[in-house]
Design goal:
Rossmann fold, 14% strand, 2 domains, 13 strands, alpha/beta
Length: 454
């Protein structure tokens, strides 16, 4: 813990927190565990993840389990039979709305006496991360006795026009998203929150009405063991080793990555590994044949996280042109392993990458994105000293700014400010994206600094 910081008693709401899951439940567990290394954290979870959380033996002060047997059975049944475990749909977010409200109501009934007795200093809601899901706790604590903080939250990314990939995946419910502002508790949640932690410039833009209490902290992180265990030794491949990691769904735009890499692949100057699976796989395999690069592209399908990291570590460049990505956890992992990311400058990845560690190309149109990525890959293939320098700086950057420890420290500074125990931290969005953000100060995010600058 940084000098001057005291241990806080945090009641942390995270209904779907799970160390053995993927995506948001895993991200939430890692963030909660990092905070528990610094503070006395009482973790509030749903009963379906209780076993996994307890087996992980995280450094939590207590684990508070909220049990809703009937509602949990209904949710699990619908998740299996209605949604087919498709977590990449906004309809599931809408469906989860009443269950999230019920969880917080049950949690309040279970913990209110202890809250009023002064057992905790602050309530932090980490899950759900979606901004459209309000919090009863914010309303119930509007007059105290302790403050309520929400985040990190994501969402608000528009669906850019002119991309066939997004038109193929955009859902009917997207047009109704803004209606959440008129749902019960929606306005009181952010009006009564003592601080709002957002994980992208776009999400910060959604809350431009609250410039004095909006902070930027990235959604994802990496373990310190990952960056400390990386020897940071430049790789010595004859060919440029390219990799894409992610679900093969339209918005991830793996097709743009393959089209951009095709010239190098046809000339025998690179190899390309695709890690992931999904409904786009057959179309991508046909595209590889059409482009004449089948011999230099490998489709691995879904593999375990350990193997994902192994394949990432054996690569030089992560080509990740996702057109709509909130967090981009694989980009964090690539940086930690000394892999140079090439991303589209939109959403979470666009807030994290800067020229000293990787490339980000403007969100313009398909042909221009392909041309810009192609140019970046050609530069890296022809300038190995540049590639090695970016790889070294990527690891330094990840070690200094992108670990779960660093994220917990940033969150701590926000909580200290809320409790009037410390100065207001300068955790501002890297970019000003929307009309109305002029009220926010000029961004000087530490995430935009060069590692060399400290």
């Amino acid at each position: 813990m940084e000098e001057g910081m005291s241990r806080l008693r945090i009641l942390l709401l995270a209904p779907f927190c799970d160390p053995d899951a993927v995506s948001m439940p895993f991200v939430t567990y890692c963030h909660a565990a990092a905070l528990a290394e610094l503070h006395d954290v009482s973790l509030v979870i749903g009963s379906p993840s209780e076993g996994n959380v307890r087996r992980a033996k995280g450094p939590f002060r207590t684990i508070e389990v909220v049990r809703m047997p009937m509602l949990e059975r209904i949710y699990a049944w619908c998740l299996r039979w209605v949604f087919k475990y498709n977590f990449d749909t906004q309809v599931l977010t809408a469906f989860s709305y009443p269950f999230s409200l019920a969880f917080e109501w049950y949690a309040w009934r279970q913990l209110r006496r202890r809250i009023r007795a002064g057992e905790f200093d602050v309530v932090l809601r980490v899950l759900p991360m979606s901004a459209v899901v309000p919090s009863p706790f914010a309303f119930l604590l509007r007059k105290g006795p302790i403050p309520f903080v929400i985040g990190p939250i994501n969402g608000g990314l528009p669906w850019p026009s002119g991309f066939s990939q997004l038109e193929n995946q955009k859902e009917w419910i997207s047009g109704a998203r803004k209606l959440y502002r008129y749902l019960p508790l929606a306005r009181s949640t952010y009006r009564n929150a003592a601080a709002i932690i957002a994980n992208s410039s776009q999400t910060c833009a959604e809350f431009a009405a609250y410039p004095d209490k909006v902070f930027f902290v990235p959604e994802n992180g990496v373990s310190r063991s990952m960056v400390e265990g990386n020897p940071n030794t430049p790789k010595a491949h004859d060919n440029l080793e390219l990799i894409f990691v992610g679900g093969l769904v339209p918005r991830k735009a793996c097709d743009l990555a393959l089209r951009a890499a095709a010239p190098l692949l046809r000339d025998g100057l690179a190899r390309f590994t695709v890690v992931g699976d999904g409904p786009e796989r057959s179309r991508l395999e046909q595209l590889v044949t059409t482009l004449g690069i089948a011999k230099t592209v490998s489709f691995c399908g879904w593999v375990g996280h350990k193997e994902v990291l192994s394949r990432l570590g054996a690569s030089d460049v992560l080509v990740f042109p996702s057109l709509r990505d909130f967090g981009g956890g694989v980009v964090f992992e690539a940086l930690a392993l000394g892999i140079v990311p090439v991303v589209v400058d939109f959403g979470g990845p666009g807030d994290i990458i800067y020229p000293e560690v990787g490339y980000k190309v403007p969100l313009t149109n398909e042909s221009d994105i392909v041309a810009q990525i192609e140019k970046a890959l050609a530069e890296l293939a022809g300038n190995r000293s540049l590639l090695r320098r970016l790889q070294r700086q990527a690891v330094t950057y990840a070690r200094e700014r992108l670990t779960w420890d660093a994220k917990a420290q940033d969150t701590t500074r926000i909580l200290e400010w809320v409790l009037k125990r410390g100065p207001k931290p300068e955790l501002l969005p890297p970019k000003l994206l929307a009309t109305g953000l002029a009220a926010l100060p000029s961004p000087t995010s530490p995430y935009a600094k060069s590692p060399a600058s400290g």
